[in-house]
């Protein structure tokens, strides 16, 4: 086994290369011990640039993750790779070819076409601004207009989850639960189907809180970060979740993307972005 | 040309299906007139589930965008497709197979491995919280600690761009420029290399402002949304950009992803997510 090999990989795109980057990341995640060197080239628009990048990739024996919408450029890259043996996949091509065959039509070959500005785009901006305006219970009135309402005690990750869902186009309001502070009555007026309760293991919350206290320059041993306090708060949160009858998501060992995906599944939300 | 055909597509993943979704979106973007029906199945963990999804996809003559890390499951899907002629690509497989060959090792076959929790993950959460704390010039002290400082007049998209960069793990502060309000002296103390000035065509800003005024229930014709005012503000902003010597990004006709990609390129920032 040769785990010390350094693997050069190339992200090539006539747009921003986001799709190719995702595939590269998912592929490399299967090889946690491999050292990779990333080379990223975006907005490629002519043969000369493409040729010189492919030559560089070939010299480094690189893996090329490519999304090129322009058929001429894609063909040029393909020819180069057949000739040299360079490993390169145009990730969208198998699909665009198949769709073109089925529809008896040609792809538009417009690079970055998925990012086009439209009414959806403005809706997305509005969603992101909404999430910011109604973060952390800043204004409980947001609960009425929100599509998703996220509840949780301190350090359960309400804010990052809301922000991420915001970038996906959903209007999210989040509300912190604190035993000493009565929850807004609005929470009991809105549709519980749009409410999600976050929970986590008390050990993880504890760790988060300790680290937050350190950032604030406060040593360990505060009441906020004590296990008794965390358990007390969790108990209080679960009482509220039960009253509302809302679904509960345990975010321990889950990334923001995974938690967001579960929220969308549980709430049966349509894909927007 | 048969543009009215409805195309069913399937996102299949043993993780959250984000990578497959990106590829699907990029592929369909090439066919703006095609009507698609999305079927998404995530966290697939056994043959029975996979079989029934593939059968459904086959009945609908669907296109299958797949990211399955588990080798057994992937093989099962592949066999099914060869037998039935169903169009299905396991997007990460060409790469994982090639990497495995080169490294003489097996992929870990852990689904969703790219989302693993780590110190990077906590850094990312901190970045998102940072962006929220220092949005819209809320606290000019954030300019010092920020990795990216975004300037712009009202409705140039500072907030969504900051939030998106935040989800990518960068600490961003943004500061609105208003002719009547003196900018914080901190702006002139920090490294201008980390400052980005946003600009846009006055027509687009005008449209944004009119729409914002409508949301507020204010009719057209306000000073805020007047062309003279927008031009006056843009002139003021460009004067400051010149003083600072910071790069300027024109965000007109650019999506958030594209603008973010340009920011990262201009500032030569490493990829984090």
From TrEMBL, chains A, B:
<comment type="similarity">
    <text>Belongs to the pyruvate, phosphate/water dikinase regulatory protein family. PDRP subfamily.</text>
</comment>
<protein>
    <recommendedName>
        <fullName>Putative pyruvate, phosphate dikinase regulatory protein</fullName>
        <ecNumber>2.7.11.32</ecNumber>
        <ecNumber>2.7.4.27</ecNumber>
    </recommendedName>
</protein>
<dbReference type="GO" id="GO:0004674">
    <property type="term" value="F:protein serine/threonine kinase activity"/>
</dbReference>
<keyword id="KW-0723">Serine/threonine-protein kinase</keyword>
<keyword id="KW-0808">Transferase</keyword>
<dbReference type="GO" id="GO:0005524">
    <property type="term" value="F:ATP binding"/>
</dbReference>
<keyword id="KW-0547">Nucleotide-binding</keyword>
<dbReference type="GO" id="GO:0043531">
    <property type="term" value="F:ADP binding"/>
</dbReference>
<dbReference type="Pfam" id="PF03618">
    <property type="entry name" value="Kinase-PPPase"/>
</dbReference>
<dbReference type="GO" id="GO:0016776">
    <property type="term" value="F:phosphotransferase activity, phosphate group as acceptor"/>
</dbReference>
<dbReference type="InterPro" id="IPR026565">
    <property type="entry name" value="PPDK_reg"/>
</dbReference>
<keyword id="KW-0418">Kinase</keyword>
<comment type="function">
    <text>Bifunctional serine/threonine kinase and phosphorylase involved in the regulation of the pyruvate, phosphate dikinase (PPDK) by catalyzing its phosphorylation/dephosphorylation.</text>
</comment>
<feature type="binding site">
    <location>
        <begin position="152"/>
        <end position="159"/>
    </location>
    <ligand>
        <name>ADP</name>
    </ligand>
</feature>
<dbReference type="InterPro" id="IPR005177">
    <property type="entry name" value="Kinase-pyrophosphorylase"/>
</dbReference>
